[in-house]
Amino acid sequence: MMAGGLVRRGIWWGWLLACLVSLIDLVGVAAVLGHAIWASAVRLVCGALLLPFGLLIVRNGMQARLTLVTRLVRAESRSRHIARLHRYLVNLLLVVLGLAWVGLGTFNLVQGLNDLR
Questions:
Q1: Which is the most buried residue in 4, 78, 108, 111, by most CB within 10 A?
Q2: Cα–Cα distance between 26 and 75 in angstroms, integer?
């Protein structure tokens, strides 16, 4: 029971960290940091965080998507149909976001490795 709570907390904090890393990446690591040697390290770290978490969400490993949907969508007492639709849409959005993170993480890893050459 305690391990399940620890996994759910890890998924939640991983979600928040991945959102922060995405925001940093969208601002533009290259624009802010230039092509310094440590910019490639930042790209590698961004890729190393986004790629596995994106895969975890897309594949629903350790029920990550279900955990996030449950946390993001509170039970709505007005209508079960609206709550079901809301959960479905958030689930779909998480799949799309996970795919974007996989792509962004892969791109950052490739760019970071190319910059190290």
A1: 108
A2: 32
58-93, pLDDT tens digit by residue?
999 999 999 999 888 876 656 778 888 889 999 999
Q: Where are the beta strands (DSSP E) in the chain?
A: none
CA distances from 1 to 4, 5, 8 (A): 5, 7, 11
Specify the pTM: 0.85
Name the residue range of residue 92's domain. Answer: 2-116
Burial status of residue 106 (CB atoms within 10 A of its CB: 0-12, 13-18, 19 or more): middle
- Token pair 């790209």: residue: 43
Determine the Cα–Cα distance for residues 26 and 48; give it in Å rounded to an integer: 16
